[in-house]
Amino acid sequence: MGAALQVSDSLVDELVAADCVVLGTPIYNFGMPAQLKAYFDQVVRVGRTFAFAPGDAEPYRPLLASKPVIVVTAAGDGSMHPGGALYHLNYLEPHLLTVLGFIGLTDTTFVRVGYDEFQDDRLKRSLSAAERTIDELATAMSRKFAENSTAERITSRN
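Below the sequence we write its predicted structure tokens.
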């Protein structure tokens, strides 16, 4: 059984060790691509990323410490994003929030790109906005990680 779980163990270890998780995914046929679903099938594991206690009132408990998760999504039509006429067909984001939250990753930020099927100014504006957001997130996180690193060094000296 150990060899069968080797890939899963490695993927879970990566998640545990990460300071931040970044996912890039398109919205395929209203939801999650098969490859991303296969990844989650490897990392959502009883005893590793969630606990199961059938006798408890709430039998499922996440085991991962929350950390920032940034999800960059791409949709052929930008109206699949919040506020758009087709947002009710976007099953990717609720699915991601559910599976990430189930294992303890509740600090999720979405960066959205839309209109790639149209190849017009809407796509250019969407890409520019996403790039600005990613730059802002990277700056904020690098500051946060630098502050945490400094605090850890001060704590370890005392």
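The chain has a mean pLDDT of 93.
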